Amino acid sequence: MQALPLSPTTPPAEAAPAPHADRFKPARAKPALQQAGALPAGPSRLNRTLRWFAFEAVPPLLGLALFILLWQAVSLYSDGLPGPAKTWAAAVELFADPFYDKGPNDQGIGWNILHSLERVGLGFGMAALLGIPAGFVIGRFAFIGKMAAPIISLLRPVSPLAWLPIGLMVFKAAGPASIWVIFISSIWPMILNTAAGVSQVPKDYLNVARVLNLPESKVFTKILFPAVLPHMITGIRLAIGVAWLVIVAAEMLTGGIGLGFWVWDEWNNLNVEHILIAIFVVGIVGLLLEQALVLLARRFEY
Amino acid sequence: MDKFVQLQDVGMAFDTKQGRFVALRNVNLDMAEGEFVSLIGHSGCGKSTVLNLVAGLLEPTGGVLLCNNRQIAGPGPDRGVVFQNHSLLPWLSCFENVYLAVERVFGAKEGRAKLKQRTHEAMALVGLTHAEHKHPHEISGGMKQRVGIARALAMQPKVLLLDEPFGALDALTRAHLQDELIKIVAQTRTTTLMVTHDVDEAVLLSDRIVMMTNGPAATIGEILAVDLPRPRDRLALAGDPAYHAARTAVLEFLYRREMRQAA
User: What is the pTM of this model?
Assistant: First the structure.
């Protein structure tokens, strides 16, 4: 599927602007007509490609063009904000050598991205290792679920960065502290979605297990796990979104190498082009992570 | 008459938010081995509850249930259940759905090849050899229900329990599956208890029809023995006075004695 840079969660069919909705329909109806053999293949295929282009490809491109135009206009009347062309030039220069290393405070953009991803991966990975089994237990055993409910309700709404001082105090280092922040803020969606999935496993499936007298291990592998998987992946998707949101903020505060630190560093250098590039990089990497998980989720739809 | 399945003074009450709800009281029923019994009644009369009690999915709050002279203490593979909505696991193929049951019942004693053979035989019994490797969402409602029947029969249960097995199907598919069920049961001679709300289905398939009174606190109102010769043929029965007499008796019970109040 094509990327929709402005709204990654919107399915493509909804990308067509509302006023065109009526004109959009015939394009969708066409394949059905064709299957019935009502239309010759040649001209209608060309037609379809044109329509696809007009209603699927043009609107996002138009939106992007408008955005860049607006950006350009604002930059003309602003002292500090660089325009698209200047930013593009800076980006080309920056990405020409993404992996240079001139000491701890001056490394290529590639290193910064990889370090941020590494922290997200570690924090998020540990959250998944702990959160998903915890979700299964909370969902399967009502007593434990009720025990955990007040703790989760209390801790979940806490702003991720509020956990940073605790991390710094316990780990006495910036790196583990930011991993800790990722861990604690991304664990909740995985616990809650997994638990919700477990408690929503259709009773019929569990009755099948009871009639067959399946041992608990078989109940887990053949019924519980496959039934919960889609919910689990939704939790993972939400969690990775949160983790990626939080990492920039956490790194701004803790320093070290990473996108967040880089943004702050470039602000101190008053290099606004690089800040804009960082915003795009954060957005694009977030989009790619999200899309990868959407694809994974689609694999497990029944 | 030997008593293969016995329900002795069975009562069932549920605790709800509005208080205690008595669903069944004083249900007494004996089934002979190889007998086909239908439970019929208006919806909400607790006929599915009776079936779930025999299945062991529910525990009675009064009385006792016996199967083969042993008390029913929980679900077990000696009682195969065909659920109303097929309840196939969507992530397994039809073959794997049936194999799961076969493996559970015979896995301890038999090798993999024998288990697979049993699964193939069960699929063949319901005429679905060609659909073995399809997933439930790829086949029709009637085929899904047949896989459900294959899964229950593959366990070689002592009792087959059918909970409105054809309720969700269209009339033609239903008739077709009823005919198949007649053949299968004649072949396997399995003791069968079926819940239905279809009078024709009950008369066509059953040796006895158990008619339930309306709930709450439902119980058995009447039992009708269907003395029609087997094998039964739906077309031949259409002109048979005995068939019509049985049909009328059930309808009389449902629509005269147990007329349901308009909801």
Answer: 0.74
